[in-house]
Amino acid sequence: MIIRGKLTVKYHTLFTKKFLIALLALVQSLAVFAAEAPLKVSSVFDLSSRAHKGTFFELMSDKSNGIKAMLDKDYVTPVKVVDARTFRERASNFAHIKELEAKINGGARGLDKAVSEMAGQAIPVDKMYGTVVTVLRKNGLFVSTNPQNQSRLAGALVPVIAIASGKGVLVRLDQDTYCYNYGYAVGSGGSNLVADELNRKTGRSYGASASRGAYDPSDNDYLRELAKYAAHADERELERFYKTVFEILLKSDSSRIRDLSDAGQTVIADFMAIYMAELDRHLMTGLKKYEWENALTEITMLASFSASEHGVTLDPRGGPSNDSERGLVNSCKLADKDRLVGFFGVGTDGSGLDGRNKQRRHALTRKLVAEQRKLNPALVAKVEKLIGSRSGVDIYDAVMNTINDFRTQSTMNKNADQLIDALVEFMLSTRATASDMNVLTD
To answer: Would 84 disulfide with which of 48, 108, 116, 134, CB 3.0-4.6 Å?
Structure first.
């Protein structure tokens, strides 16, 4: 009995230790993969509360309580820079902080030194860039001696320092998915397009998801991420993705994000970060210039076809310069991540997704819609009717011009549910019938 008792106690102690070790490992693993809560910033717009009705365009453009109104107010109040210790605690919220620190002499300590020198100062938003450049140069903190590289680094650090100091507008999409927006000039509303040429260059937006911290994706970052995701997403995932996109845009409803894969949630976060940035710039001009949010969404719509194995896309292999022509190519000839980057270009005739790139994109979308009009005439006619357009239009172009227009919001609100279903069906059809469409030849 005594021996059995000792063995029982020993076994129980061993079991308890193993259980505690396993439990601790589980807790630690959950901590690693748990989404980091967003930082506290100047203003919060909680889309996940479902308290906001109407289109996202209405929520963005509302002059009293809209997201742009919040951004305008945030722009005219200064950044009060936090101390280095507080900054260090908050900097981990950004996915690329280590990448930025690697470009600074002394790494994290060098960045902390720069923040310490600015701590406590109330710096106007439009003076932050110059202040950061001066501090970094004064202390010999730039690793690169190239002025362009120094400028890019300072431009990337400014919003990180400002948001960590409590500036910016947070748009919360769900519990784990959110976007920071910072530093967008107010704009003239279209009365001074020359000034808006400079205003459009202001601002940064960041997307964050359950599986990745806050990050400010470039157009090419997003196009590669989207292409890889769409290339491998099955029909059910793709259906949920497009449903999520258009429920946000047409109903301000982001509740479906939780139904997506981790990759899908991150794509949505980055899409919304860029979308808000570009819609704000479009609104700066009173919708007279820079409809880049429409271009972004058109390419997102195209991903179901152009990122698929049987799709067709713009060939990026000649490089991004708009000075050379860019023809169509079978998507299967490209790596999955490169199947959408052909829609981006740089040059004198419009950089990014606009200008010459818009003309090339629409040459493809017109062919796609024409082919779908043969295969699914009733569906194409339904979309045209729901957006109030004439027959024969390029659906990709017409849908986005209708969604982001002050004059069409009542129609969008009225037809939202039907239009969402029709657009999702259209996108899935372009993938399902990709082999049946002839878009490579005129």
So the answer is: 116
Which tens digits make up the pLDDT trace of 44-72? 999 988 777 899 999 999 999 999 999 99
Secondary structure of the chain in the HEC alphabet? CHHHHHHHHHHHHHHHHHHHHHHHHHHHHHHHHCCCCCCCCCEEEEHHHCCCCCCHHHHHHCCCCCHHHHHHHHHCCCEECCCHHHHHHHHCCECCHHHHHCCECCHHHHHHHHHHHHCCCEECHHHHHHHHHHHHHHCCCECCCCHHHHHHHHHHHHHHHHHHCCCCEEEECCCCCEEEEECCCCCCCCCCHHHHHHHCCCCEEEEEECCEEEECCCHHHHHHHHHHHHHHCCHHHHHHHHHHHHHHHHHCCCHHHHHCCHHHHHHHHHHHHHHHHHHHHHHHCCCCCCCHHHHHHHHHHHHHHHCCCCCEEECCCCCCECCCCCCEEEHHHCCHHHCCHHHCEECCCCCECCCHHHHHHHHHHHHHHHHHHHHCHHHHHHHHHHCCCCCCCCHHHHHHHHHCCHHHHHHHHHHHHHHHHHHHHHHHHHHHCHHHCCCCCC
The mean per-residue pLDDT over the stretch 197-215 comes to 97
The C-alpha atoms of residue 23 and residue 205 are separated, in whole angstroms, by: 38
**Which residues are CB-contacts of 208 (< 8 A; sequence separation ≥ 6)?**
35, 36, 38, 93, 95, 176, 177, 178, 179, 180, 214, 215, 269
Q: What is the pLDDT of residues 244-286, one digit of tens each?
A: 999 999 999 999 999 999 999 999 999 999 999 999 999 999 9
* First CA to last CA distance, the chain: 92
CA 341 – CA 351 distance, rounded (Å): 13
Kindly indicate the confidence band of residue 18, based on its pLDDT and cuts at 50, 70 and 90.
low
CA 348 remoteness from chain centre: 25
CA dist., res. 154 & res. 150, Å (int):
6
- Closest of 140, 159, 46 to residue 93, by C-alpha: 159
d(CA 427, CA 429): 5
Given a contact cutoff of 8 angstroms between Cβ atoms, the answer to whether 215 and 270 are in contact is: yes
Nearest partner of 55 among 243, 252, 247, judged by Cα: 252
**Would you give the distance in Å from CA 314 to the centre of its chain?**
22
CB 287 within 8 A of CB 213: no
pLDDT of residue 130: 98
Cross-strand partners of 321: 346
